Amino acid sequence: MDARADAAAHADDLFDGVVATLHGWRERAEQVLAEGGDRRVELDACVESLVVPELARPNPLLVGAGAIADDASEGPGGMHFAWWLGPLSTNPVLRTTTEPTPLDLSARGYVEYVRDFRDREWYRVPVDTRRAHVTGPYVDHLCTCDYIVTVTMPLSSGASESATVVGVVGADIAVSTLERELLPGFAASSAPLALVGAGGRVVLSTVPEIVPGSRARWQDGAALACRSAPFVVVMDPQPDPVRG
Prior knowledge:
- The structure is a single chain.
- By secondary structure, the protein is an alpha+beta fold.
- The protein folds into two domains: 3-174, Beta-Lactamase, CATH 3.30.450.20; 178-239, no CATH class.
- The chain is built from four helices and twelve strands, in the order ααβββαβββαββββββ.
- It has helices at residues 3-33, 40-55, 121-129, 175-187; strands spanning 64-70, 79-85, 101-102, 133-139, 147-156, 165-174, 193-196, 202-205, 216-217, 223-225, 232-235, 238-239.
- A six-stranded antiparallel beta sheet has the order 3-2-1-6-5-4, sandwiched between helices. It has a four-stranded antiparallel beta sheet with strand order 8-7-11-10. The chain has a two-stranded antiparallel sheet with strand order 9-12.
- A hairpin with a 6-residue loop joins β10 (223-225) and β11.
- α1 packs antiparallel against α2.
- The relative contact order is 0.17.
């Protein structure tokens, strides 16, 4: 098998698994919302029961997960966050945690300028398209202050096709975790490889000079599209000094 195809298959398998998990979470959350009325407390409890076991696993794949929905009771642009974070290592902004914790927006004053998240790609695209969407890699200023990839899908007020889309369910994956999971397969190739997202933004690479979040360039025909994940596997990538 082409080394790129093998690497792409590993990436597809990983993201297909995340999407399948989100489908199950969405079904449970929509059952709660279908009962009508103010269901915030019940939604929070449902989300906690679903995501905390995943975040508490040894070497978890996900660094954060939950549901985010429109909430008029929170005022103009109000959003209800039923979102949990996995254990976090110390960084310049956040403290170290050793177990899953709920996201506390009051402790994120530095993101006040994006308090209405409806225009964020990870929220807007799945709500508009009613399909799962992968965003990133990008620096997550809300939760981890690190490079992540986010998978989201629309959350409706009930299970019927006519139900109103009220938000998203989603999961964050740290790029460092993607490196842990995928780099061994990429490194098995005799040629340098990189996993690249939209706009040439690198997710991971076997070339030390091409770091996550930077941009890469490559020759025509060097990129192979993944089957389901919105990435390409690039052979012999080069740093892009103009767009990096």
